Structure formats: C-alpha cells, structure tokens
Amino acid sequence: MGTEREYDDIPGTYVFDGRRNAEGYHLNMFCKSLDVSKNRQALHNDPGGYLDQFPMTAEQRMAIDNRDWLRMLQLGGNIYYTYKLAAVDGLNMQEIGAAMSGVTFEEFRQMMIDGGRPADGNRYAHEWSDTEST
Amino acid sequence: MPAQLIGGIGTSHVPAVGAAIDHGRQDEPYWAPYFEKIEPARQWMADKSPDVCLVVYNDHASAFSLELIPTFALGVAAQFAPADEGYGPRQVPAADGHPELAWHLAESLILDHFDMTIVNEMTIDHGCTVPLSVVYGQPEAWPCKLIPLCVNVIQYPAPTGQRCYDLGGAIRRALDSWPGNERVAILGTGGMSHQLQGERAGLINAEFDVAFLDRIVDDPAGQAAVEHHEYLREAGSEGIELVMWMVMRGALDANVREVYRAHHIPTSNTSNGLLVLENADS
C-alpha cells in the first residue's frame, strides 16, 4: 500500500485507495452512523460524547470539530461519507465543494454554470506549483 | 425464445436531478433545458416498454459501507425500497424485483467466471432511483421490474473498464440462455466528468465526455482499455463512474445504432450525459 501510484500527481485530488481507507476508517464510519436518525439526534445532543465512541486520531477529531472538509479528506475521509455530516449540517455538495476549493458558494456555483473547472492546467501537480511560484 | 435485450441506455444519476423532479422544479430556468433534452429517451422507453430494467449503478455508502465492499453485487430480492440518504427516502415507488431472472443471472454469471455478490436485502439509493426517474418520470408504480447491479466505484480500485465490458458480455449470454421471453433494457449509469472532492472540485471535461460518447458507440473495445488513472485525471475522481456504462455496452451487439444522445453542462457539479443504443440489426 505504500507504493507510488500513477494518480498521485493529480492535484487537489484524494483518491480513496487502501491507504486512505485504513487511515480514515473510523472517521468514515462515524459519518456513516449518521444515516440513522437517532444517531443524528445523539450527535446533536452531545457532540463530544457521541464522537468519543469512534476511535479517531486527535487530528481527525479536530477536522470534524472544525468542519474542515478538506482536512477530513487529507486524513482519510471519503467524500460520500463526509457528505453525510455535511447534510446533517444542512450543507449541499456545492457548498462543501466551495469550502474545499477555497472559494465562496456563489463563486463555485457560477464556475459550474460557466462550464466547470477546466481540465487544462489542472491535470498535473506541477501545473499548480508552477502557477504558485510565478 | 430467450429474453430479448431491447437496448441500452447510458445516463448520469445526479441526486440533484431527482430532487428537481421530486420538488417540481423541472420548469425552472436552471433545469428546463436539461429536462427538454431527456424527453426523447422517455419516449423511447414508453415505445419499447421493457418488462425488466437491469440498472448498473453504484451505491453511495447507503446499502453498503466500508465494512464490506463488493465489487459486483446483484440484487435478487422481490422488492427494493428507496434508501434514506440522510433526508428521508425519495418519494418514489419501491421497485419490484424479478427474483427468478436475477437468480438465473447470478448463477449464469458465476459459472461464467464472474464472481458476483448476491444480495437478498438492499435499499436502492439515488444511483438507481434517479435513472428510473430520468427514463420514466413520476409514475405511481415503476412500469418495469428491476434488477439492480451495484458496482464499487468509491473504493479504489473500481473494476477496470475491460472487466465491466466483459461482464456486459456475460450478462448477454445469461439473457440469451433464459427461457422466459421478457423484454429487457440495460442501463449503465453515472458520470460523466465530475469531481466532488478536494481543491480540484468542480472539474468538468466536455471534450473527454464527447469523445467517450463517440467511442462507446463505435469503438467500445478501445474505450474498455482506458485505464483508471486516465479517467481520474481527465474526467475527475468521480468520473470513474463511467466504467459502469461499459457494462451496458458490453451487453449489446458489437454493432449498435445510436438512437439518441444528449449532453448537458452543468447539472449540479456534473457533466450530464444520456445515450440510447439499440442493436444494429434489431
């Protein structure tokens, strides 16, 4: 699981492979538990106590507490699972898409209406680091 | 007389499309152009009126979770209820299954070297119910029986495009050996280019999508050879869902007739595709 992958140089993308599954299992299963309404209620009533049931790392717990949607992915979260927490918070996919890519919801929504984020310039990590260095 | 495969449909399965239908927003300026484009596919379904729809889709952490991750899972139940995806189940009918044909498929596929997971109890999430809404609108009851076939595309690696294409061929052999005379449609769903996650969220690649639509019609064996990293890079992390269209294509004859095609950008965060194919000599 430690070998380099051909997709590792795609920028801003967290492919959910075995490495991420292993790292994020408990974070993702916390999110999955929110499928059940009594669990949503339990999280609402006592967030700390509810989250204590899931043996996450301190960093993962902080990402959850801060609703840092990008950080969750970096720590093994999967978007279809983290989205369950977003839905509990009343957020839609475009709102967390905006949060993860560092723009406002309005900017993100308009980008999609205008045809989305182009593939050109967004295929390889070096294309991003080149931009940042100039 | 074996089952008759009347054709294949490729369609996106965007949850926002289901929400637009459920909440009566189809005439709003954002949605009206998309819903106009799907009308010919609905007409085709109404004309062909298949007895059974085999819907190839991915479950989105609804019926399955990380506890157990089947690559190919076939639903053999008598009924499939819509899943609660966090805001209550979609207000669409439960779908009646076709256990006899589903079990025939399971047995035939496994003996044909495709090791299916067999599912007796499962809900169906937007991956399955939205395609039904796309092709049927809002009927009181779905006018077909449903056989759901879930493909894992959330946990890397998804099955390859080649494997999906070959599975389609095995599905066709199974249908050809079924003694009933049901009329069957196969739906391959998901895509097209989109990325929900990370700093690259919002990626759309219309050029890739159009090339995919061209190639799945005329050069499916070539498209089947496209590797995961190319889908991920070019079509976005969730664009990998397009491998599920390859199952649909593999079930059809080598030569197909393109009955209808539509492509619409955007629906929510996705590039939305729709393709209707029939066997060329049908």
List strands and helices in order, with pairings:
The complex is a heterodimer of chains A (134) and B (282).
Chain A: H1 18-33, H2 37-45, H3 47-51, H4 58-65, H5 69-74, H6 79-88, H7 93-101, H8 105-113, H9 125-133
Chain B: E1 4-11, H1 15-22, H2 32-48, E2 52-57, E3 72-75, E4 79-80, E5 95-96, H3 99-111, E6 117-119, H4 126-136, E7 145-151, H5 161-176, E8 183-189, H6 206-218, H7 220-224, H8 228-235, H9 243-251, E9 256-267, E10 270-279
Parallel strand pairs in B: 1-8, 2-7, 2-8, 3-6
Antiparallel strand pairs in B: 1-10, 3-7, 4-5, 9-10
Helix pairs in contact in B: 1-4, 3-5, 5-9
How do you describe this structure in short?
Chain A has 134 residues and is mainly α. Chain A has helices at residues 18-33, 37-45, 47-51, 58-65, 69-74, 79-88, 93-101, 105-113, 125-133.
CATH architecture classification name of chain B: 3-Layer(aba) Sandwich
Which term fits the overall shape of chain B? globular
- Structural class call of chain A reads mainly alpha
Radius of gyration of chain B: 17 Å
Order of helices and strands of chain B: EHHEEEEHEHEHEHHHHEE
Helix content of chain B: 25-40%
User: What's the CATH superfamily of chain B, by name?
Assistant: LigB-like
What profile does the largest beta sheet of chain B have?
A: 8 strands, mixed
CATH T-level fold name of the largest domain in chain A? Protocatechuate 4,5-dioxygenase, Chain A
Q: Strand content of the residues of chain A, in percent?
A: under 5%
Q: How many independent structural domains of chain B?
A: 1
CATH class of the largest domain in chain A: Mainly Alpha
Taking all Cα atoms into account, the compactness measure Rg of chain A is 17 Å
Strand content of chain B: 15-25%
**How are the strands of the biggest sheet of chain B laid out side by side?**
6-3-7-2-8-1-10-9
Distance linking N and C termini of chain B: 15 Å
The oligomeric state is heterodimer
Name the CATH class of chain B. Answer: Alpha Beta
Q: In angstroms, what separates the terminal alpha carbons of chain A?
A: 35 Å
Silhouette of chain A: globular
Helix content of chain A: 55-70%
